[in-house]
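Annotated sample (chain length 227).
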Amino acid sequence: MQTVTFSELFPLFNAASPETVDWLLSVAVEHEYPADRAVLMEDAWGNAVYFIESGWVKVRRHAGDGVITLAILGKGDFFGEMAILDESPRSTDVVALSDVRLFSISAQRFIQTLFRDSQLHHRMLQLMVRRLRQTNYRFQLRTQPSVIKLVNTLVGLGENYGVQTEYGMEIFNIPFQDLANLSDIGLDETTKIMEKLSSKGWIRVIPSREAIYLLHMKQLAHLAGRN
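Output written by the structure step:
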């Protein structure tokens, strides 16, 4: 992958020097995983930082005999950065939702790069603060009606990872149980709300394309209280 392409794909490296990006590309390891394959098991956290070149993954937390989806990440995002600084035991793993291509950079090399490139260090802190704000915002929504929480989840995924197409803003056809976990509502509620949004023509689910299309982003954002 070319340096410019790499920087455009991953917002984290927008402010990094070309020399930094060149070096990271030289030490990066590429991985491919099919859908439903575990990408990162809980005992492997802290070994590397992972960057999503294409596809979708979910971060899960184990709860008793089950699991709860904590986050959905798509193209251009990254994970594993917290664990390289925190050596406490992990209770989460990462699973591919779709076929996924990743780059990994070892923890030691990534930390060395952060020390060498202050602009990259600053950009990473900015993105981590952004994630924290998004988490706080989700927490603030806990008392809101279920439809607002679910639509916020959909709009957030569209804004962060969606691709504009002739059919509307396209995101991966995320399983309803994962959407329910992210929105802190029940599966039955999620199913009913998705069916209602579809009947109103605001979204369209096309399983054959593995896609959900957000047909009216402005209206959905308004319903979610984002504008």
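Annotation: The longest strand covers residues 66-73.
Annotation: The helical segments are 3-9, 18-27, 107-116, 118-140, 146-161, 176-183, 187-199, 217-223.
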